[in-house]
Amino acid sequence: MRKGEATRERLMDIAEGSILAKGFAATSIEEIIAEAEITKSGFFYHFKDKNELARALLKRYIQREDVLFDDLFARAADLHDDPLHIFLIGLKLLADMLADMPNAHPGCLIAAYCYHERQFDKDVKELNRQAVLSWRRRFTEAFDAISERYPPRDAVSNEALADMVSNTVEGAIIMSKALNEPKVLAEQILLLRSYVKLLFQPT
Prior knowledge:
This protein is mainly alpha-helical. It has nine helices and no strands.
């Protein structure tokens, strides 16, 4: 990685940590450049304003989450060829991974942005919206494949189920941080897994 790219990544790392800890509005450019030990002009070389920084952070976050989910469910597919079992294994792998994090999951940038959406321009808001819709599509496709083989035992919408996955993960991140109980995150994912298993379990 070139020096300029390394500096840009460091600025983003510092900003992301601060946003997740105290919110976007409370994160100042001054504190970012002080911690990064660069000049103000150095910051503006990489980002013209805070909204451009927000866009860059969100794009990086989305890319990382997509890679994470792709990897987890690809590993699950290597272990089983049944869509229900693939999904259940994927959730178990996710819970195990999060439980093994020494300091718990660092937080959810999507939630942080939603809480402070008035601080952002329309491009950041739209990017945030598209990220949520992307995860909805991902999990809806998984539930569509499952329900073709295993009719659900209750009248549910696959799209609503997909939103439930996102809501459980994002909400559990917030709860685990609020309570300072890292185990909450893995526990909630495993409860979700139990619900999905019971919902699609053949009678």
